[in-house]
Amino acid sequence: MRSKISSFIMISSFLSIIIFIFYVFLKSYNHISYFTHPISIFFFIIITMLLCILECVNHLIFKKKLQFLSEKERIKIFEENEGNYFYRFYRFIFYDKINNNKVKRIDHGFDGIIELDNKLPMWWIHLFYLTIIFSAIYFFSYFLLDFSDPYEEYNISYKNQLKEIEIFEKNTPQVTIENAVFKKYLVNDGKIIFEKNCATCHQSDGSGNIGPNLTDNYWINVKEKDLFKNIFSIIWNGSDNNPTMRAFGKTGEIKGNDIEKISSYVYFINQKSKKPLRAKAPQGKKIIKWKEI
Ligand code: HEC
């Protein structure tokens, strides 16, 4: 017969298991805010009351059973229940109540060695049971709910990131031709965007294909006094005389911040890096003196 565990401990441990399962369930459906909803609180109160009733019934049954036991068995149960709860819990964990004095001996026979088959310590066995219970909970929550599903977690954080980017873009004003300036640290980012959007017509090194060579001093379109702004202006407005070079900025195809990056890259390959070995023949006017920026 089981020794009596304190009702207080029983109720609180059952309640915490139920709350934990409830929590995992809500978390996996992203409804964690429902956790403190009045209905949930009501549910917990009902559960607590039910657990109390169950404990009372158990207690009564326990008392009733005691009456039918022999004197010897009763004494044994009283011995098991002596001391306060924590002492009993300590004994329960570290000693096997029934067999703690009996060590089984296994006689090998053939070699004369007698093996002592010590019982595993109770804490070890309980830990083992705990892992089984944990694995069962984890197994079902993993396969039936979204709990700890890596794909679901990825989706959620991906969506959150997109949202953050959207908020960031809304709150940070885009660069316009008025405040765009060449920034060396944007060159690498600009290169990536250039390769995606412009390299088909200009080559990724800017040496020219359908579109003109962007690394020489010859320019068809001269709208601004300084080179960087001129580049920005063409990407924003497109070319007046050839619609093949479309207005990436005006149409919203590329945002101002990205145009600043691309312009930085184009400015960099035109002014600051080595010229490509093979490039398209010059087009437009030669311009040597741009306004310094
Ligand atoms: C579909 C082909 C095409 C694409 C894509 C394209 N361009 Fe062009 N680009 C051209 C053509 C053609 C011209 C020449 C326009 C003209 O004759 O006025 C040009 C001109 C230019 C000029 C001015 C050159 C000059 O000498 O006046 C710049 C700068 C430029 N493009 C940058 C870019 C950038 C940056 C991108 C990517 C965002 C890009 N282009 C994408 C075809 C293209």
Question: Can you describe what's shown?
Answer:
With 293 residues, the protein is mostly helical. It has 3 domains: 94 residues, no CATH class; 73 residues, no CATH class; 103 residues, Orthogonal Bundle (Cytochrome Bc1 Complex, Chain D, domain 2), CATH 1.10.760. Helix content is 55%, strand content 4%. It has 10 helices and 4 strands. Strands 1-2 form a two-stranded antiparallel ribbon. A hairpin with a 6-residue loop joins strand 1 and strand 2. The protein is elongated and about 115 Å long. The mean pLDDT is 86. It binds heme C (HEC). The site of heme C has 26 residues, from helix 7, helix 8, helix 9 and helix 10.
The total domain count is 3
What does the radius of gyration come to? 39 Å
- Estimate the global geometry from the Cα principal axes: elongated
- Which CATH architecture of the largest domain is right? Orthogonal Bundle
Name the hetero compounds present.
heme C
CATH class of the largest domain: Mainly Alpha
- CATH fold category name of the largest domain: Cytochrome Bc1 Complex, Chain D, domain 2
Low-confidence stretches: none
Q: What would CATH call the homologous superfamily of the largest domain?
A: Cytochrome c-like domain
Termini gap: 91 Å
Nearest-integer average pLDDT: 86
User: What composes the largest sheet?
Assistant: 2 strands, antiparallel
Strand content: under 5%
Tell me the number of helical segments per DSSP (H or I, 4 or more residues long). Answer: 10
- Helix content class: 40-55%
